[in-house]
Write a sequence for this structure.
C-alpha cells in the first residue's frame, strides 16, 4: 500500500472515529440495559465496592478493545496469507494458532474480570447479582438477530427447515422439524 493511501486511510479513520465518539457521547443509555446506580443500590454496594467494580470494568473494557484490535489484525494477516499467490502453509498454521491464542486470551480475560468482581462482592451480594442477571435475561427475552444455538435452553427456536415446509413454503401444514444432533 502506498504512503499516500495509508495517509488517506488514517485520516478517514480519524474523522470517522471522531464522529463515532461525538455520537456516543450524545447518545443516552441503551434501552434494556440495567442502570448501574440502581444495581448498586439494590445490591447494597459500599462506595469502596462500587469504586473497585468500576475500576475493574474500565480496565476490562480497555483490555477488550486492545484484544479485539489485535484479533482483527491477526485475522487480516491470515487473510493476506491465504490470498497470496503461493500459500505458505507453515505461516498459515502459525497465524491460525495466533488467532486461536488471541481468542483464548480474550475468554480468559473476561473470566478473570468476572472472578475479580466476585471477590469484591459478599456472598449475599453475589447471590443477589445472580438473581438480577437472571431476571434481566428473562425481561430482555429473545434477542432479535441472534442465531439459534442448537438446543441451548432459552436460545430461541430453531430455524425453519429448508425445502417443503420451509420458510417460503406455501404449504399450510409443514412436517415437524427434527432437532439437530439427536
Amino acid at each position: 500500500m502506498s504512503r499516500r493511501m495509508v495517509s488517506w486511510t488514517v485520516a478517514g479513520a480519524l474523522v470517522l472515529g471522531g464522529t463515532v465518539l461525538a455520537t456516543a457521547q450524545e447518545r443516552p443509555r441503551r434501552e434494556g440495559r440495567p442502570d448501574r446506580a440502581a444495581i448498586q443500590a439494590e445490591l447494597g454496594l459500599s462506595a469502596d465496592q462500587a469504586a473497585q467494580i468500576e475500576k475493574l470494568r474500565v480496565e476490562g473494557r480497555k483490555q477488550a478493545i486492545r484484544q479485539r484490535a489485535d484479533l482483527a489484525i491477526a485475522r487480516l494477516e491470515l487473510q493476506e496469507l491465504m490470498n497470496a499467490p503461493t500459500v505458505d502453509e507453515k505461516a498459515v498454521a502459525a497465524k491460525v494458532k495466533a488467532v486461536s491464542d488471541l481468542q483464548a486470551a480474550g475468554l480468559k480475560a473476561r473470566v478473570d474480570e468476572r472472578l475479580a468482581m466476585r471477590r469484591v462482592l459478599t456472598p449475599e451480594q453475589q447471590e443477589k447479582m445472580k438473581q438480577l442477571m437472571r431476571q434481566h435475561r428473562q425481561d430482555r427475552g429473545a434477542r432479535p438477530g441472534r442465531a439459534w444455538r442448537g438446543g441451548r435452553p432459552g436460545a430461541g427456536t430453531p430455524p425453519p427447515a429448508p425445502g417443503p415446509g420451509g420458510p417460503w413454503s406455501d404449504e399450510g401444514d409443514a412436517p415437524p422439524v427434527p432437532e439437530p444432533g439427536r
